[in-house]
Design brief:
Largest sheet: 6 strands, parallel
Oligomer: single chain
CATH superfamily of the largest domain: Phosphoglycerate kinase, N-terminal domain
Shape: elongated
Number of helices: 16
CATH architecture of the largest domain: 3-Layer(aba) Sandwich
Number of strands: 17
CATH class of the largest domain: Alpha Beta
Distance between the termini: 9 Å
Structural class: alpha/beta
Number of domains: 2
């Protein structure tokens, strides 16, 4: 485990905290503020230590000057202030001389949020390319750096990796919780199963390769399963698949035929009608959108005696209610039992929240891509310069 915020002296210090405030926004409203709420424990701890608190985060993809209006952290500041008695102020200037003056006038124990780190990408991608001067400028603002943005640990950016080269550094409570839970998968209670959905195998190739030897079962759903079925010469109609991955899937199924479990029926659309079809009766006009009832029962039987589950990616097009059943039924089934169930960030966490199971699983990672990267290799850029605890 890395050095945590409790292992480093932050009392009466100026502390810069890399948070993950990259929340979804619609109609100028935050749809899900989970990531903001997850940052509060670290912020409140620093308040208790009378730290001068400097918060930084990215929001959205900033490609043009017009994006600065869309992705200002003003909306995040307002949301933070719903949860904190100690009101957060926003510094909109990107000039570090101005920022330093603002910090100097900030009383101890108070909080300043700096503007979106990705605004610096409008100047030769300085944030994303981990520009040395930008990294040093960020580091010059504080005495200590706390990285609490788990979802960006796989990025070598100025606001995480860059700062940590120049300041005493530690992880915050959010990252600590993430690592503690994900590290359970290093020595899981067996049998151990992975449920893997979503659309692209190519996005999860390294994860599959790194974990397939460690698991007892790999249950596949979503559009990913279409590619496996296509590789098995099974008709999938008009369904999405990855042609470039057919050979890989065929070899994987040959080598791990006793571990890989595929759907046997699907719910989908044919001639504008929703139908359920067995894999042997799929016609060329059929488009797969969810696993079917026989597959649900098959997967439940496999999961019945499993003790540890890692789940990444939904089993169907959960955004449409009619195709939520596969994901919902498996969530319902596994949360009935005292199993360790870890959700691997991204869409499966969104699906879990939408379907009402967010408080019924063991742990939901905030990471997405960072979660997968960490499981593939714990030595991630955002953690590299933070020392390990002495055992």
């Amino acid at each position: 485990m890395k050095i945590t915020i409790k292992d480093i002296n932050v009392q009466n210090k100026t502390v810069i905290v890399r948070c993950d405030f990259n929340v979804s926004i619609k109609d100028n409203k935050i749809i899900d503020d989970t990531r903001i709420k997850e940052s509060l424990k670290t912020i409140k701890y620093l308040e208790e230590q009378n730290s001068k608190i400097i918060l930084i985060s990215h929001l959205g993809k900033v490609k043009t000057a017009a994006d600065k209006k869309t992705y200002s952290l003003e909306i995040v500041k307002n949301q933070l202030n719903k949860y904190l008695d100690n009101k957060v102020e926003l510094e909109t200037s990107l000039d570090f001389n101005q920022i330093k003056k603002r910090i100097k006038s900030l009383p101890q124990g108070k909080i300043l949020l700096l503007e979106n780190t990705r605004f610096y990408d409008l100047d030769n991608q300085k944030e994303s390319n981990c520009d040395e001067n930008l990294s040093q400028n960020y580091a010059s603002l504080a005495d200590v750096f706390i990285n609490d943005a788990f979802a960006t640990i796989h990025r070598r950016h100025a606001s995480n990796y860059g700062i940590s080269k120049y300041l005493p550094s530690a992880i915050g409570f959010l990252i600590e919780k993430e690592l503690q839970n994900l590290d359970i998968l290093n020595n899981p209670k067996r049998p151990y199963a992975i449920i893997m959905g979503g659309s692209k195998i190519s996005d999860k190739l390294n994860l599959i390769n790194s974990l397939i030897e460690k698991v007892d079962y790999l249950l596949i759903g979503g559009a990913m399963s279409n590619t496996f079925l296509k590789a098995s010469k099974i008709e999938i109609g008009n369904s999405l698949y990855e042609e470039s991955m057919l050979d890989y899937c065929q070899k994987l199924m040959t080598k791990y035929q006793n571990k890989i479990i595929l759907p046997i029926d699907f719910k989908g659309l044919t001639n504008n009608k929703v139908k359920t079809k067995n894999i042997k009766t799929i016609d060329k006009d059929f488009t797969i959108f969810d696993i079917g009832p026989k597959t649900i029962k098959k997967y439940e039987q496999v999961l019945k005696n499993v003790n540890t589950i890692f789940w990444n990616g939904p089993l169907g097009k959960y955004e449409e209610q009619i195709y939520q059943k596969g994901t919902k039924q498996i969530l319902k089934y596994i949360t009935k039992y005292p199993k360790t169930t870890i959700l691997g960030g991204g869409d499966i966490v969104s699906a879990c929240n939408i379907l009402g199971y967010q408080n019924k699983v063991s742990f939901s990672s905030t990471g997405g891509g960072a979660t997968l990267s960490y499981l593939e290799n714990p030595n991630q850029p955002g953690l590299t310069n933070i020392e390990n605890k002495e055992i």
